[in-house]
């Protein structure tokens, strides 16, 4: 399985926001994340970068 | 390995722009893609969505 962990980039570093993410899609003014267990999370964020071989998705917060 | 294929969303559908993508990172006014073979590509685009279990990264062109 090629899911990834999603991290939110913050001033202090990176915060894990969801494990085993499968789908990331735009929704309203942010992103919907869905993991392989069917759990969903909405974040006011955009994709910053990907490191797929390391199973990492980095997100950045959007300005309020 | 958990690389993915990158597709650019166009009016007509989806165009494969790079196979076996590992790293996607912001660069200037677009994205730099690097695949597992070390090949690089720059696109004036942003990440639209991800479908990681299907090994797919969807990109959208940025307005000129």
From TrEMBL, chains A, B:
<dbReference type="InterPro" id="IPR019300">
    <property type="entry name" value="CooT"/>
</dbReference>
<dbReference type="Pfam" id="PF10133">
    <property type="entry name" value="CooT"/>
</dbReference>
<protein>
    <submittedName>
        <fullName>RNA-binding protein</fullName>
    </submittedName>
</protein>
């Amino acid at each position: 399985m090629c899911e990834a962990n999603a991290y939110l980039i913050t001033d202090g570093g990176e915060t894990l926001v969801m494990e085993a993410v499968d789908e990331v899609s735009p929704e309203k003014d942010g992103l919907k994340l869905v993991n392989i267990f069917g759990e969903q999370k909405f974040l006011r964020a955009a994709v910053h970068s990907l490191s797929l071989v390391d199973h990492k998705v980095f997100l950045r917060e959007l300005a309020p």
